[in-house]
Amino acid sequence: MTKTCILIGAPMDSGQQRPGCLMGPAAYRVAGIAGALSDLGHRVIDRGDMDHGTLEPASCTNPAVHDLAECIGWTKVLAATGRAAMAEGFPVFMGGDHALALGSVAGVAAYARDIGRPLFVLWLDAHSDFHTPLTTTSGNLHGTPVAYLSGLPGFDAFPPFPAPVPPERICLYGIRSIDPAEHRGLMAQGVSVQDMRALDEQGIVAPLRAFLERVQAENGLLHVSLDVDFLDPSIAPAVGTTVPGGTTFREAHLVMELLHESGLVTSLDLVELNPFLDERGRTAKLMVDLVASLMGRKVFDRPTRSYG
Predict the structure, then answer these.
(1) Contact of 212 with 262, CB cutoff 8 Å
(2) Of the residues 229, 269, 278, 289, which is catalytic?
(3) 46 is catalytic
(4) Which of 97, 129, 182, 251 is catalytic?
(5) In 39-151, which ranges are E strands?
(6) 183 counts as catalytic
(7) Angstrom distance (rounded) from CA 131 to CA 133
(8) 125 is an active site residue
(9) What is the pTM (predicted TM-score) of this model?
(10) Which of 13, 70, 97, 125 is flagged as catalytic?
(11) Of 27, 97, 157, 231, whose CB count within 10 A is highest?
């Protein structure tokens, strides 16, 4: 089905401490994301890059937390932008580090509440991102969005999340790095964690299909948050949080094709691309290829590419 794809750039790297993610939106554009979507028959509207706006003083009792005001600014801007974009079409949030999801998912959740439909979230990531500003030891707020959208306490400095997502509507998929505090929180909340051990045992398809069946049964909206480190670093080196043992090229494309066939995805994050760490743009191009698979490109339609 033809969609109106709304590209929203979020050049932010305040959620972590390795510079470079702010170049992500430009890299996606150079890698041809608009053309890939247009070639599939979709209408593309590029809203350009957002800005965090005027920052207000903010504080946290955890001294490790850094760039709090910037992350709050981005959250407010992306929540408002995302809520409006959902009413127009299919927003694609191009990051930027994963802290952008503090705002993108808030905007999508507000829209879902507006129209009276449940929101489901598929988190494709090496990390569970289930810290709060009070539990993080690194102070990196890109590790907090799932806790925020779950409605956990500790986010007093942030706008209240508009409609917290119940644990049964969240699926963490491809996880392979969880801190002890996050593990305790996930177990207490009952969030579904499909780590790489589970995917190795059950296969890549069955857990995803089971989750998608729940989305369909409840007539839900599905937000997909795709972190570069969901992929194995051997095929996607342009990320500052590499964890070995990620999904392969074939597995990642299969996930995207299953999501397309479901017809359930209504919004998308592309996060943690750091072009400074890339090799001739290979990670940016792979991420664009995955977006194309999500939006309808079939396996036999993929172009042959030379890196010579």
Answers:
(1) yes
(2) 229
(3) no
(4) 129
(5) 43-49, 90-95, 119-124
(6) no
(7) 7
(8) yes
(9) 0.96
(10) 125
(11) 97
Q: Which residues pair with 121 in a beta bridge?
A: 170, 223
What pLDDT digit, counting tens, does each position of 60-110 carry? Answer: 999 999 999 999 999 999 999 999 999 999 999 999 999 999 999 999 999
Examine the residue annotation and report whether 129 is marked as an active-site residue of this protein: yes
- 96 preceded by cis ω (within 30°)? yes
> In this structure, are residues 98 and 86 in contact, taking their beta carbons and an 8 Å threshold?
no
- The token duo for 218 is 């409840």
Q: Which DSSP category does 177 fall into? A: B
**272 is known as an active-site residue:** yes
Structure tokens at 116: 């009276």
**Residue by residue, what is the 3-state secondary structure of 183-208?**
HHHHHHHCCEEEEHHHHHHHCCCHHH
User: Could you give the domains of the chain?
Assistant: 4-300 (3.40.800.10)
* 51 is known as an active-site residue: no
User: Which one of 98, 223, 253, 260 is the catalytic residue?
Assistant: 98
Pseudo-torsion of CA 170, 251, 274, 156, nearest 10°?
10
Q: Is 156 a catalytic residue?
A: no
pLDDT digits (tens, 9 = 90+) for 35-65: 999 999 999 999 999 999 999 999 999 999 9
Model confidence pLDDT, tens digit, residues 141-168: 999 999 999 999 999 999 999 999 999 9
Q: Which of 298, 307, 294, 6 is nearest to 124 (CA)?
A: 294
Length of the chain: 308
Determine the 3-state secondary structure of 90 from DSSP.
Answer: strand
